[in-house]
Amino acid sequence: VTVIREIVQLKKQLANICASRVGAGSGQDGNLDEFSVLQKAVDAAGGKDGLQKVTPRCNAQMALAIRHAIFVGWADRVARRITVSEMVREESGTTTMRRKRRYKTLLSSQVCSVRSPVSRNRPEWVTYTTLQEGRTGNINMECVTEVHPSWLTDFHLDKL
Asked: Where in this chain does the record put each DEAD-box helicase OB fold domain (predicted)?
């Protein structure tokens, strides 16, 4: 029950942040592309009231709007799932990783793993909040959210 209360509080905080950014104007303090994407996400969710509405279960449209809003806030922290060809070392032909939950960050090209329910679906693109080094030296992504590939084109991250 405590976790559910925390989720509801975080949802309200995110709704307030998104709605205040959209309500503040036409993105004078930031990137116009970011503003327009954020405005679309907030409008799709029904504005501030729609984002704050407590529902017994989050429907698909609301979940998509929340994921989109999270991506807008963390657009510089995107990772792409590593393909099989990238897992094989060219010089020796051996596999560098045994797990299928490996991603490579776009900006730093850091190879990291995911310990999250999101990894069960193995999305091609994810956004994360932090990278944390584990006891064994592996780098893990924290607070992972699936990203739609079409959102990347809004920020021109598809060229990275």
From this structure: 66-155
The whole-angstrom separation of Cα 137 and Cα 24 is 43
Q: How far apart are CA 69 and CA 86, in angstroms?
A: 30
pTM, 2 dp = 0.56
Q: Work out how many domains the chain is built from and give that number.
A: 2
The phi and psi torsions of 27 (rounded to 5 degrees) equal 75, 35
* Residue 34: partners with Cβ closer than 8 Å, 6 or more residues away: 27, 72, 75, 155
Q: Would you tell me the crossing angle of helices 60-73 and 2-23 to the nearest 10 degrees?
A: 70
Beta strands at 130-133 and 139-142: parallel, antiparallel or unpaired: antiparallel
**What backbone torsions phi and psi does residue 84 show, to the nearest 5 degrees?**
-60, -40
Q: Does residue 64 sit in the same domain as residue 120? A: no
Question: Which tens digits make up the pLDDT trace of 84-103?
Answer: 777 665 445 555 555 557 88
